[in-house]
Amino acid sequence: MMEEPVRLPVVATLLSLVACSESAEGPTPKLEGLINPLQRLITPARVCNAGGGERGWRLEIVGTGFNPLPRDALTDTPSVELPQVTLSGPSDYTLPADHLFFARSELMRMDLPSRDSTPSSQLAPGAYTVAVTNPLGGTSELEDGLRVVPAPTLTSITAPQGFSYGGGSPLVIEGSGFRSDALPLITLHREGEEDQPLFSITVVSDTRIETEVPPATPEGTYDLVLTNPEGCAVSRPQALTVAYPKLGLLTLSPRSGPGSSDTAITLDNTRSGDQRPFSPGIQDVYLVAPVKTDPTQRVNIPLRDVARVSESQLTATVPTCAGFDPPPITDPRCPGGIVPGGPYALIVVDPSGAVGLVPESAGFTVSASLLNDAPTP
């Protein structure tokens, strides 16, 4: 099967190469290597014995002297016989002709079937010798030219310390087929939301990975998807439910302030059941609102001068005029300030990892105090 149509001049050239005798041995190919496009710089090439889509994994065969042979060129049904590619190792396999594609004498491509392709063929893991044989004879072999690796498996996913909103939450993944020589891509997936990649990854062994769930990951149940660099992947549905310990009912006073100056507020924490108090340390408090430099986007704006008065009370300053800018603000127009409007929600992150929310309905309103201030719609 040709990846690109063979033009008549090409057929003529090929015919001229073999015109003297079809029985004569053609040029001997020289196989230099295989390339997995997912890992172009890795030699020998690695390929997964599962996944890869309907036709398997696309690999590139690089060398010189790859010489297809035209057949029935002077008939109404001309064809081309491509070099044969065979693998020998823990198991032996000859690539079907319709899985080979000739690009030029230095490059061919092949679709290597896997457990999940059609047709399927699951090669045993290990090192394989690759051989390319031209139709008129001549064979080149490359020992350890291809490494077949198994797909990883997932048996256990645990968060031994639970989840913390304000910091990374340790996560332990157990299974098989993990690779310390090339870090996997691990993502949390939930329908309707962007995938959340996990960044801090340590492959402890081929059966254990230690990583962490990033701070402020939205609560909910996630699928976990692990993908090794060569393409091997595994997914575990509903693998992880992220939930944070909660502070009590949060209320603030005052609930509004002018846009022309920052506003001091008090936050009270009324608890019941297993809800958490304000613990010793510094709480992170955010107002979820737009700033004038980007009025269409609500962002988490940190409050200043946060102080714990008791386990049930905090004081802080809403930077209504300053926004993200460092004080003092000398421009009375407060160009980086919070867009007048609201009410805006507040998020409180406790050093213990607990989180609390003042909803928009009970949040903070920024009043328009300048003629050129316009409330949000």
From TrEMBL:
Residues 152-230 form the IPT/TIG domain. InterPro entries: Ig-like_fold, Ig_E-set, IPT_dom. This is IPT/TIG domain-containing protein. It comes from Corallococcus praedator. The lineage of its organism: Bacteria, Pseudomonadati, Myxococcota, Myxococcia, Myxococcales.
